[in-house]
Amino acid sequence: MGGSRVASAMSKMHPIRHLTIRKTSPKDIDTWVQLRHALWPHYSQRYLRKELQQLRARGKYESLLAIIDKEPVGFVEFQKRLHAQGTIESPVLYIEGLYVCKKYRRLGIAQRLVDQVKKIAKAEGIKILASDAMLENKISQRAHKGFGFKETHRLVHFLMKL
Ligand SMILES: CC(C)(COP(=O)(O)OP(=O)(O)OC[C@H]1O[C@@H](n2cnc3c(N)ncnc32)[C@H](O)[C@@H]1OP(=O)(O)O)[C@@H](O)C(=O)NCCC(=O)NCCS
To answer: Model-level pTM greater than 0.70?
Structure first.
């Protein structure tokens, strides 16, 4: 009995119960940039802000925030792409970035963000959700499989200055 009271009190405190997922608005750009910087710390906030401005100027480039008690704890950013490796479907909705703060990991927050992106894709008649992960990022790969993604290709990217 005592144990079940403790379990019930703990489930009431479970952070995911206080989780809100919502689209970012122009007011959230600073928060979005900070979360991008947490995900890609090897780029400066200045660079990531400029990149975001460019991406948004080019077309619809969106994100969702995960918020617990007014604290942003994660985000996902995504856009339509005409092509993704492993499918001839076009367009696809492509997850360009996904991040959850360390202390809130393994609580299903990324799963909730991805579920929401799936809903957005379906509402727009898009049949494929695509994403990628760095070869060395095993956790991201496991998480993608956990979300229900199937691996398609492993690529090496190249650039040439012209
Ligand atoms: C990858 C990341 C977004 C996952 O976020 P998360 O909120 O912890 O993920 P979830 O709790 O929703 O996990 C969903 C499923 O993914 C899998 N998974 C997630 N993290 C995992 C880990 N560390 N080890 C093994 N499997 C994992 C599991 O199947 C999990 O389901 P389960 O907990 O019921 O077993 C988070 O670890 C992160 O932000 N990492 C750093 C940034 C990054 O690598 N982003 C992805 C590349 S863009």
So the answer is: yes
